[in-house]
Amino acid sequence: MSVILFAFSLCASDNLLSNGDFELDNFRQELSFAWPSGSIAASHLQEDASWNRCLKLEIKKIESGAAHLLLGSADNAPGLPVKPNSTYRYSVELRGKLPEVSVFAAMWGNEEPVLNNARPGTAISSRPGDKWARLQGRFQTGADTQRAALVIKLWGEGKEPGGLNREAGQYLLIDNVSISEVRGLGKEQVTELPEAVLQRKVIQPSAQQHSGFRSYNSLGACKDDTRFSIEQEEDGFHLHIFCQQSTAVRANVKADGTGIWADDVVEIFFGPGPSQDRLLSQFVVAAGGG
Predict the structure, then answer these.
(1) What letter would DSSP give residue 214?
(2) Would the pTM of this model clear 0.70, i.e. be above it?
(3) Other Cβ atoms closer than 10 A to 95
């Protein structure tokens, strides 16, 4: 059994999306798809290096007609409830092999919330690459606006995807999508996420022990006692990790190196928090000491 410890603090605006980071199993719950049938496949992707979950859109066959993804829905209809005459900010991270995509807000009043009826906000274009890139923008709701969604346009109406360097196998990865209201005359207001959000906690260094781990596969409570504390020292941190295991522990590897994976291990990940840098630092300790 590997025990995974994430040590981090989180700060964010009030995101209207409950699964903007696509960590929940039901990744489709806030999405609407508007593209020719069978042309694009949507799936849940877990990145190998960081185990991060994201949304993957892959072209399966070339079809004419517009292709859009709508992020944000409520009451089984596109769009989330928003306030009239208000400013909203959005952020989305993209990576992939599509030549170009654009991102914009779609807004509706009393009309049916389908894309053809929407009032679009200003679009931002992007050329996705091998590294994650963040796009940020704002939109202003009108006096009659009631709903809004974030739209990612893969290609437009009346254009042959093949003529725009689109081809089967090209893909787009999407992650960390947020839509939030700008309050206080445009001033940025940042608040801590509540502890209930995805069972994450803001942990301050202290001798206090923290528990409540969940199984990575099932998200259910761990059956074995697992807890830790983290204390700040003059030039670093001291981690004390307790892992109980109901089966026999593999604890044979004393030497450092890649051989540690033959043992049961503890993996500790340090992440950059709310910055745009997605690089994780990973430390692995074998039960035998390697």
Answers:
(1) B
(2) no
(3) 19
